[in-house]
Amino acid sequence: MREAPTGKTAHVDTFVRERLPKPEQWPTLLYDLPELDYAPQTNVVTELLDSHVAAGRGARPVLRMESGDWTYEELRDKANRLARVLTEDFGLVPGGRVLLRAPNNPMMIACWMAVAKAGGVVVATMPLLRSRELSVIANKANVSLALCDERLMEEMESAYESDCPLEKLLTFEDAERLANAKPAEFETVATAIDDPVLIAFTSGTTGVPKGCVHFHRDLLASADTFFKRTIPCDASDVFTGSPPVAFTFGLGMHTVFPMRAGASTALVEKPSPEAILETCQRHGVTVLSTAPTAYRAMTPLVGSYDVSSLRHCISAGETLPLPTAEAWRDATGLRIIDGIGATEMFHIFISAVGDDIRPGATGKPVYGYEAKVFDDEMHEAPPDTVGRLAVRGPTGCRYLDDERQTSYVRDGWNFSGDAYLVDEDGYFWFQARADDMIISAGYNISGPEVEEALLAHETVADCACVASPDDERGNIVKAFVVLNGSYNGDAALVEALQSFVKERIAPYKYPRAITFVEALPRTETGKVQRFKLRQEELERKKES
């Protein structure tokens, strides 16, 4: 197994590097492919943006909008000016963290590029997060500077005023005003290929967010393995979709992958089914990425739009139901490319395309990756036997200062928390989640986090949240609630509890169904037996 070349770190602020897991806790990383032989001193933005301008491709469109396109040269100049603002006006040094908060729009991409150009570490956050969640992330990553879309400032300002390390908060509008007064020249910092560039936060089963640290190498490696082999594209391709750039799924599909190919992206700030289809029609989109929920919602509408330009349709975020895949193919003639990825791995690591797609199966490990199914004793499971999915490749889990590293990585393998089986032909078939995460409409939702929000309400004595099967969203969050003795459960209280949760955490996490119960099933040691509640929901679904 070849050791990958490494460069001299450019990081002056070493906070992230000092809080990486111990080397013996890292997964085994596979760098043997010739595509992964990067120069030791490489900044991902040099490869994705600067190189195109230097090669005379600066006039090509990179971001497409109703108001007009941005070219690669225009994005480069915008990022250069913003990088000057960050370094000259706000003191950002290589290794410093910058929190970004915005929907999918051009300034979000420009700010992302500017932070990385300056050698900084991007901490991108979901637009729907509340102040308490933003504060937790800012504390975990020790973020002192945040850039925020002005339309999302209310929760950001609340976090800024709370007990967190944020010292400077700047709207995109103010950042752009300052940038317009700067020269368009900036020398992109020659980071080491394995300097951190991204902390992608995901919530675990405890509700405490885990920061997944990714290097410049990781983003390029995902582009040069999964992307180039599974969905080969060129400069003529146009990408669009729904996943936020704050998700690694969205960052890959909207930024890293298209820019690696010199292609362009049509960004959708509010990706309703109609908005996505209209964007496909308007810009001649060739590559569409979204969750199964969106494909289900778009299927009955797609006949009203011209989507004949589409070549690749990628699905991730939750398992792709066979009826959804078949209905989309019937409506469009296109087969959906299913895939499983993880924030810890950066992007998709099992998938299939074209004639290799086996309906109902996720697929096989993508180029550069290996996957196996293990039993609880770390023995490889025989074919057609359910076990724990494990994967390794050129990317892998490195949690920021988190003891849960040893739970995700064992014996050099990354364990995604999914139960799978692999058949005799090497196809991987999803069975269930192996933890308490609830995947709903492509969002990962921590059941215990929702429980914590519910328990803050005066009427709630006890509660447990599980995934409940749903035809439209795959699963929904269902809460089983034990009330304090003086309260009665009715429709009005259900609505009050749902509103209460929406005010405390991101609205998409709220329990869409609530059942009032006398008591929760528990073990002799007092632990809630959530598997019994999940089983009840599965049985209820079968009977309905």
Please provide a written account of the structure.
There is one protein chain. The chain has 16 helices and 25 strands. It has 544 residues and is an alpha/beta fold. It has a nine-stranded mixed sheet with strand order 2-1-10-9-11-12-13-14-15, sandwiched between helices. Among the domains are: 235-334, Rossmann fold (3-Layer(aba) Sandwich); 438-543, GMP Synthetase, Chain A, domain 3, CATH 3.30.300.30. Helices cover 31% and strands 24% of the residues. The model has no long low-confidence stretch (mean pLDDT 93). Helix 9 links the parallel strand 9 and strand 10. Helix 2 crosses helix 3 and helix 3 (72-89) packs across helix 7.
Question: What are its keywords?
Answer:
nine-stranded mixed β-sheet; five-stranded antiparallel β-sheet; 544 residues; 31% helix; 16 helices; GMP Synthetase, Chain A, domain 3; Rossmann fold; alpha/beta
